[in-house]
Amino acid sequence: MKPAYKDHSRPNAERVADLLSRMTLDEKMAQMRLIDKFEKLLDGKPFSSEVGRQYIGEGIGSFYCCDYLAPELLNQVQHYLKTETRLGIPLLMMGESLHGTMSTAATVFPQAIGLGASWNTRLMHRVVKIIGRETRALGITQTYAPNLDLSRDPRWGRVEENYGEDPYLTSRLGVEYVKALQSQGVAASLKHYVAHGSPEGGINLAPVHAGERELRDTMLPPFAAAIQEAGAMSIMPAYSEWDGLPVHASRFLMTEILRDELGFDGFTVSDFGAIPMLHSFHHSAANALDAGKQALRAGIDMEAPNTFGFGPELAEAVRRGEVPLAWVDLAVERILRIKFRLGLFENPFALMNRLELIHNEEAVLQARKAAHETVVLLKNDKDLLPLPRHVGRIALIGPNAGVAQLGDYTARSAADRSVSLLQGLTARLGAERVTYAKGCNTGSGTDEELAQAVEAARHCDVAILALGDNSSFHGGIGWGDEDGKVTITCGEGFDSSDLQLPGRQQELLEAVAATGTPVVLILMTGRPYCINWAKENIPAIFQAWYPGEQGGHALCDLIFGDVNPSGKLPISFPQSVGHIPCFYNHKASARGYYKKPGSPDAPGRDYVFSTPEPLYPFGYGLSYTTFFYSDLVVTPGEVTADGRVDVSVLVKNTGKCGGQEVVQLYLTDCVSRITPFVRRLRRFRKIWLSPGRARRISFSLSRSDFEFINENMQPEVEPGEFVVAIEALKAKFKVSLQSEGRG
């Protein structure tokens, strides 16, 4: 008779309990560990039972695939675990899928910040369903995504990995990501729980200075939604500390809030090297054993990528009774629960018959369509765009014109098969109508290069400048170009104290503009930059982020009007570094009292030489058509017991071409004993309208939309007046219901 844990007809809870009861301490500890870069351990040797016994022994919790692990090799390892170990426990194959599976073969979609700019939950679901399909075919059954940090400081290099500054937008996109990924048999590991996106000084891993109320009001909601609505199976904690405790050692965050309040029933995996950092970086642990005890007690279930805290010292401490065996059992129970939930005991293998679906025609087409919606049109004076199809000669200039910028957490080889703007423009117009001049490198350049670019612009009808960042060729800290010739300016571990365009790019922009040739500026960046001069002097500006492997074609579709731009900013653009923080959902007192902007010759108040307002606000984005909003209706005018209110507005396309519009609903609590936010995004919907067509868009608000966090750190609704705003329309209504806070 086979053991209960091998009987797939039994409930998972019963299978977990049966398997756990059969395991030795060493077997349990093995499930709490991860092996990184297993293929390098082989050193070119084929896998065998002897190799398995040497490196894996009687089991392992997971492997990590940072780029590409041959599916054939993975299947050999899984077969060894199933047939040649005592208990036959499969491993979790972990990988990355921030904006595509981080594998040589897989499709690269627009970077996360661009997907945030799409404001399109349906698009997110379609994209991630493909990501999940490709991921599972490769045998990867868990990925470290989505990133649900809020990008609240553009100096931080990891801004590009998130969906922007707003908790509601991030929540909606994050829920769709998790649902789509897990529908394909791949566990989502939410990161970086929690508050990672507001580091001191914008420096990665730095402490987060936020009170518990701010944590609950803004930083926790995306994680709560992904857990409670989408059933996320895994969590990766943040490297940073909050309120004096590293997150990896905080039982308050990792157990009391995450599990007891939010109801998370999956398992947690440490960020890479975060448990050693308790000793070496945070100095909260005296040694490896101390670090392991702190992390395990807090609620960390698996250590990555090497054994430090969850090593032999911890096992011996358990044997001595110094560390409760129950802590280990609880961690292993959580890991096994997900392995059973994913069906790995029945089929842990790469799906060899589905490998041909990776990077197929459907995936490539979806990458191009996704890029269309991620680009934001910031400026279009005198309708310079779209360019006419019969335009004459184009000067294509800039460090990002001839390369496909993909963003971090991308396989290096993907750039070689991706479409640059130069390739896309040449394919459309022919080489004879495109003059290419690099102008400068990302972070440097010569006078000769700059002069060549200026000369090219003088002899062309239009100049397109592709400027911005470089983070295409790395997927983690320090993964830059090996020859050192290319500057990495954004991504993990690449933070900036300055938000001017890197290197000589501003000088190049001004020199080309001085020729008098009309200029279209395309910013391929992972963060907002302070483009004050460009806003005043350049007629047309696209914020393209990193548009994915089909970015070159997609940008041409937008430039020539095959597609109408529909992206909206998911993050505010500050006027300068001195204007940080710059997020829109601030408290009423946060942007000054006097409201008297100044200038160099006439100092004012709040800031003597400028206004505190952003250069470009959250939610901003232009179109080639125009939309008119009217007839805002709130029903009923007073919200009572059930806490629901319906809001509708009429939207009409008043331009000459069809286009998509993001209808955004904001809510303001007029008076609250806990100071209210000036406004908060509460609903949005992306719609298509043909020229001349109108459509009434309806939203339904509920009790939770009116809540604030009270003195007991509980959500509460207080009677009073609220203002709902859609575009320039506003309506006031009363909320009569009251709650005293809830758990």
Shape: globular
**Helix share, percent:** 25-40%
**Average pLDDT level:** 94
State the end-to-end CA separation: 46 Å
CATH H-level homologous superfamily name of the domain at 368-579:
Glycoside hydrolase family 3 C-terminal domain
Q: What can be said about the biggest beta sheet?
A: 7 strands, parallel
> Which oligomeric form is depicted?
single chain
How many helical elements?
A: 21
Low-confidence stretches: 473-483
Strand content: 15-25%
The number of E-state strands comes to 25
What spatial order of strands do you see in the largest sheet?
1-2-3-4-5-6-9
CATH class designation of the domain at 368-579: Alpha Beta
Structural class: alpha/beta
According to CATH, what is the topology of the domain at 368-579?
Answer: Rossmann fold
CATH architecture of the domain at 368-579: 3-Layer(aba) Sandwich
Question: What is the rounded Rg?
Answer: 27 Å
